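Hello forum,

I keep getting stuck at the same step: I have a sequence, I want structure tokens, and every attempt I make locally crashes halfway through. Rather than fight my setup again tonight, could one of you with a working pipeline run this one for me? It's a single chain of 203 residues.
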Amino acid sequence: LGLKLAGEPLMKKHSNLFIPWLTSLGLLFFSPSSQAAEIETIDVIYERDNIKITTVALFEAGIDNVFNVLADYNNYTELSGVYKEATWLSLDDSETFGVGFTVIQGCIIWFCKTIERTEEVKMNRPHQIITKVIDDDLNYGETTWIFSDKNNMTSLDFEMNFSPNFWVPPVIGPWAIEQFISYKLKDTLDRIEAIANALNDAP
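Reply #2:
Ran it on my machine without issues. Output:
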């Protein structure tokens, strides 16, 4: 996630509580699709300056299609308007290792930032994606996506661990993160579902 931050004006009081480092979850408003993804669990733990976020989601779309949507940085601007730019900087011929780049705009509590994020991406199709921070302003950052078949649906187990180099309020910080995820995530999952199902119709 090699992050480069630039200060932005303070947003209005009722603007979104966006956590830039959560954008792997694609948190933004979207119109519900005809397909319905399901959220099984969301959990946020803050311990010893490390934040751990876990969530489990279910999709009606097949495992290969869900994997392909989330494994392609070129899809990210469609998943969330918070992504101002998203692309592969490099991707090997086997599509098992690459370096992804995104430009993200958002706020964490009362701080608003524009972030340039670079991360190494390792893929084991169609079962696992691991991303790791490189050359950034975080002390540490890594995400793991596990895809599996479950009762004729696709299960996605997502885990993010990161250690920010800024202070996070020990009570309000994790609570704000969890509330924000709970409020926004469903629409984005439905958007992933819709794009994944549309791959069946692609020529």
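The two ends are 34 Å apart (CA to CA). If your local run keeps crashing, start a new thread with the error log.
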